[in-house]
Amino acid sequence: MEFNIEVAPYQKLFVNDSIVILDSQPASLPLTSNETQRSCIFAETYRLFLTKQDYSIESYFNAISSMLTVTDILRNGEKIPASTINPLRRINNLYYGIGTVYAAIATYGNDSSAYVPTFTYGFNYVLHPEDDKFLSTFPHPTLLNWSLNDTLSKLLCILMCIVGSLCVLQGHKYPEMEFVVYTTFFGGIISYIVVKSFATYDVRNSPAILENDWLFWPIYLFIALIVTIILIAMPCFALTLTCAVLGGFTVVLSIAYFANSNLVYIIINVIRRLTVSWFNYAIVSLPLQSKDMILIVFWVFLAIVRIHSEDVFRDFFNNLYWKVCRRDFKSIESDKAFEDIPLYKYRVLDYFN
Where does this chain mainly localize (predicted)? Predict the structure, then answer.
């Protein structure tokens, strides 16, 4: 964190494939002040997101001008919590193609002063405009450790959309397959959202131990196990809930890929947490924009359609009923003690009552 100017009124911005690191220098006090007063200076950083893939010059200058003064920054910016490793450093998740303005405010008593704002698209749009296709090609090996062909990606997303649609509309007809897979996956997704949001959305108010990978992942796996056990204990409810939520998510995720929506970062951030250094200190608040909100509404719609399908519970219990019937008929045929077959009817009724 070395600056060329002794008291730098600007911030340093470092961008790699997955994170944005923002460094600022402590504000200066009058020469008459003593060293102990420097601890009273609080530097707060704010950011402002632009619309995704908006590279116009007008939008660029409007964003910069809206984050110049202290009043503008407080009105338009979103506060970024300080990193626990350094109060003058901010580590943020990188969102390709979303212009972001970063500004800082130094406060001493009742007086405040604004730093010079800085700006990034997450890549150099002038020199490398092809990097805007990040979500289509995954060209950065440091993120995913492999390069995914564009055609294969599209085919995979189309397959996901088909599978998700079948799960939403017809998944209840195959409860055995979906129950184990969806229950486990649902437990993992819920666990990650709970732990990650608790650990990173407000770093100062959350335990620093969750930034430690040796503690984060055991906690994550523990919550995943608890959620899975709870859902397995309620098979009918778990099947309906997981088919509705994850089936709809599979459809929405594939659409988000083609629409270049930020919802794909739900999966990308999990991979980044596993593979990228310093990502455990990053702020991962997702910038929801118009297309993201539309997809979320569509996701909710698919879940409602799945839950309120008139055949869901009937088909589930019918499948379960005939499995019990076949199992008990085999038991009856092999057991010579059962000579009065009509007694079976009462036994099946007692099973469901």
Answer: membrane
